[in-house]
Write a structure and sequence with these properties.
The protein is an alpha+beta fold. It has one domain: Pnp Oxidase, Chain A. It has seven helices and seven strands. The protein has a seven-stranded antiparallel β-sheet. The radius of gyration is 21 Å and the shape is elongated. The two termini are about 25 Å apart.
């Protein structure tokens, strides 16, 4: 992923916030070098706020073989993405008919060491942490246990996964190379269009430091 200086995170808390808020991504496991393509798994996950992510997947998932071959992976998250039309992205003094459109988005790619978790009690603990994160407030389904018969029967069908972050590439492409005036015009255009992700993208656009020259 290409990250220009003006698209880089302002601080580590910025990319960590994405992993907290957008808890669904793609786990990419390359496996051995002789594999034709990596295994890509869309999945929910939880993040401890520092350097650990956890999730669980079905035993039949092909990702396990790739992770056994090589316990390294990449987890990717894309958030707040929108299309910016050519006329909106064009500098004020340029012809909008010759303008170049662009995309705004936040993207976080974390390199991870992968630990497969098969111990029933440890799997139950990962499940409990995920359920506490995802289940609605007041849900009674937040404490899976090997002592509960139905849970005990389900445990053999899943494996847990603990990912330790070893590297991060993050990109926040929201007009960081534009002047403050141009960014304000883009913000107005997003507000006027009011598409499904325009509000979130506009918030990102206005919260990041603009170019001052």
């Amino acid at each position: 992923m290409l990250v220009h200086p003006w698209d880089a995170p302002n601080h580590d808390d910025e990319w960590r916030a994405v992993l907290h808020e957008f808890d669904f991504g793609q786990l990419i496991a390359p496996g051995n070098p002789d594999r034709d393509l990596p295994v890509v798994v869309p999945t929910h996950f939880i993040f401890d706020g520092e350097n650990t992510l956890e999730l669980h997947l079905a035993n039949a998932n092909p990702v396990w073989r790739a992770l056994i071959e090589r316990p390294r992976a990449l987890l990717t998250v894309v958030a707040d993405y929108v299309y910016v039309p050519a006329a909106v992205n064009t500098d004020e003094d340029d012809d909008p008919m010759l303008g170049v459109p662009t995309s705004y988005y936040a993207a976080v790619q974390v390199e991870v060491d992968a630990e497969i978790v098969d111990d029933p009690a440890d799997k139950a603990a990962i499940l409990a942490r995920q359920l506490r994160h995802f289940e609605p407030l007041g849900s009674s389904r937040v404490a899976p246990s090997v002592d509960v018969d139905s849970d005990r029967r389900l445990m053999p069908g899943i494996r847990g996964l603990r990912l330790t972050i070893t590297g991060v590439r993050a990109k926040f492409k929201f007009g960081g190379n534009k002047t403050q005036e141009h960014r304000a015009r883009i913000a107005v255009a997003l507000q006027t269009r009011n598409g499904p992700l325009d509000v979130a993208a506009r918030r990102r656009l206005l919260s990041r430091f603009p170019r001052t020259d």
